[in-house]
Amino acid sequence: MKERRQCSVAAQQAAPGTSRRALLLLAHLVLFSFSPRPANSAQGEAEALLRWKDSLPPPRPADALASWSLNGSAVAAAPVPCAWRGVSCDFLGRVVGVDVAGAGLASGTLAALDIQSLASLGSLNLSFNALTGRFFTPNVSAPLLSVRSIDLSNNNLSGPVPDTLPAWMPNLEHLNLSSNQFMGEIPVTLGKLTKLRNLVLHSNHLSGGIPPVLGNVSGLRDLELSSNPLGGTIPATLGKLLSLERINVSLTRVESTIPTELSLCTNLTVIGLAGNKLTGGLPPSLAKLARVREFNVSKNMLTGEIPPGYFTSWTHLRVFQADGNRFTSMIPVEVVAARRLEFLHF
């Protein structure tokens, strides 16, 4: 018994020292986890960006990417490349955003852009640069989980929209490839981008119809597909997009009726269906969409009457365009109820 008591006392005496060592170890781990990254990590990101810069053909605007250099021209207190134009970093000095929109990088390509070396990249904006070639093909061994936003709009990019995008960037929320030369079909795999909020593909050469699987992207708010020779129909599955605020499929050569299922998208504010071959009547059930501000079905082959409920229920309506159709009646007198209406074309 005496030996047991001695062992117990010894253990109690040792406990404070053990606790102190544990606390010191914990403090060390916390400090280590919040310490700046090693210089070679920041330099690796810088070198990845410089490889892409060096691949851009001359002439380049003298000041566009002049700060992208390892020659010490950047602010000394900022880790490379956090002080470069258009590059943003988090508090650990990791590159989280690259925005060189409108930098005049004409005729450059994305071939040398190694975004795998930018492991924390969340946003990439290269819009308005007249870039050519294809969508970049990341040589990735694992998904790029940080990427949330890609904007390559207003360039001269061509080729297909990669069907492997969901595998590369599963957390993508914003994808803008508008005003390019992309062709082929809209990949059905985009239906797997469950976090996508904005899909903007207008003004390309996309064909093959509107994939019904886009109705599976439940959080989608903006679906902009206009000015593409898509053909096909407006899928009824789009009625599952309960968060949808804007839909524009004008000038897409779709041939169908307007699906009544769109009346389920009660957050819709903008409906653009102009310049197609839509037939049948305007669904009266769309009057349920109380937030509609803009409605354009001009230049189709629609028939029947314009539902009076549109003007009494759409209390925020500002634009109503229905010219170039085959309606059998005049505008209903209920139009006077639309007190915010600014533009009416029938």
UniProtKB/TrEMBL annotation:
InterPro entries: Leu-rich_rpt, LRR_dom_sf, LRR_N_plant-typ. Coiled coil: none annotated. GO terms for molecular function: kinase activity. The keyword Transferase applies. It comes from the Eukaryota. Keywords: Cell membrane, Glycoprotein, Kinase, Leucine-rich repeat, Membrane, Receptor, Repeat, Signal, Transferase, Transmembrane, Transmembrane helix. Residues 44-90 form the Leucine-rich repeat-containing N-terminal plant-type domain. It is a single-pass type I membrane protein. GO terms for cellular component: plasma membrane. It is found in: Cell membrane. SUPFAM superfamilies: L domain-like (SSF52058). Gene3D superfamilies: Ribonuclease Inhibitor. Belongs to the RLP family. This is LRR receptor-like serine/threonine-protein kinase FLS2. It comes from Zea mays (Maize).
